[in-house]
Amino acid sequence: MNEGKKPIKFSIGYQLQEEENEESFVDIAGDFKDHIGEIYFPWANMPSGRAPLLDRGGYVAWDGQQKLENDLAAFRSMGIKLNLLFNANCYGKYALSQYLRNRVVSVLDYLQDKVGGVDIVTTSSLTIAGVIKKYAPAVDVRASVNMRIGTPRGMEYVSGVFDSYYVQREYNRNMEHLKMLRKWADARGKKLYLLVNSGCLNFCSGQTFHDNAVAHEQEIAETMNIAGMHSHICWDYYKNPENLHNFLSGSWIRPEDINNYAGFFDVLKLATRMHSRPRLVIESYIKRKYTGNLPDLFEPSFSHVFAPHIIDNGRFPSDWFEKTSTCGQNCETCNYCREVFRKVAVKI
Fold first, then answer.
1. How many Å apart are CA 33 and CA 74, to the nearest integer?
2. Are 288 and 258 a contacting pair, CB within 8 Å?
3. In whole angstroms, what is the distance from residue 217 CA to residue 219 CA?
4. Which of 13, 125, 306, 339 is the most exposed place for a label (fewest CB within 10 A)?
5. What is the largest CA-CA distance in the chain?
6. Domain extent listing, the chain
7. Which neighbouring-strand residues pair with 326?
8. What one-character DSSP code corresponds to residue 16?
């Protein structure tokens, strides 16, 4: 499957430089531009799959809009594709509205004028997908990973409005399933993409609730909420030491295992929008090598839940990928990840 295929490139999540001593994302992208296929980014103060870009609890980075536009122009000059995010899980009362349509078209028109347009729009909204197919048919409309599309039938249902799909991350390690999805996509002129460094729980029963809360994060931050109440379940789950080994059964892929996906995917997505060390993540995956605490590469990382231990990436057994990519994810009857956890969890 690997022979004669394009080398894998990466799609990386944009961070706005907010402090003078903070490294510019343009500099990071420039250092690795030969390996970067896309930059994905939200639009200022529109809901997305993460926190608003410019507003931090009412404090607005007023010069952020111009910085964003300048950075997008710089990425474009490097030959890196621009991937605009309209990937909030909920748009509230505007979900089916003319207002949302007009806003999306307005942003696309503005970016066309300022930076020559965008190449891709990633969305979880069927409304937005349909609008873009009608008003900007040259743009690649991509289904967000938050839609959890992981079967041919799931892709078929929305094939009229999506050109490409992020595969449901729970299938990241099921190579036979990915092969089947790729065959379906190739036969229909569709493209597949994969998010490789999510630290989230597999098959998380709280994902929809959490994604909806994130879409309304600004409103929630401005509301008097219940003390101690939060929208995620993962942190509470990992408070029980008996659950820690289940971190190994997630969807993440180690940098050392990336080459196994050549021939399945031309571009792999790295979660770096909120990461404190995006350069570390990008460089590790490009080099296919990382020495250190493996969760530090993920978003979210959960590194501190293992303290005083780390998950030593150098201690994974040589059969790790072979085992976890063919196990069928029958975690209820398998102890492999529990056994590996005992080897890789090192006290410091």
1. 11
2. yes
3. 6
4. 339
5. 57
6. 9-347
7. none
8. -
Confirm if 292 and 346 have CB atoms less than 8 A apart.
Answer: no
**How far is the C-alpha of 243 from the C-alpha of 341, rounded, in Å?**
11
Pairwise CA distance, residues 224 & 226, whole Å = 7
What CATH superfamily is the domain 9-347? Answer: Phosphatidylinositol (PI) phosphodiesterase (3.20.20.190)
Question: 346 - beta bridge partners?
Answer: 310
Q: Indicate left, alpha or beta for 238 from its phi (over 0: left) and psi (-120 to 50: alpha).
A: alpha
Q: Which residue in 46, 165, 155, 159 sits closest to 107, CA to CA? A: 46
CA angle (123, 70, 217) in 5-degree steps:
40
CA distance 9 to 36: 5
Q: Rounded to whole angstroms, how far apart are CA atoms 295 and 297? A: 5
Tokens 């029958």 belong to which residue?
Answer: 330
Instruction: With a cut of 50, list the residues of the chain below it in pLDDT.
Output: 1-3
Which pair of structure tokens corresponds to residue 166?
A: 């992020």
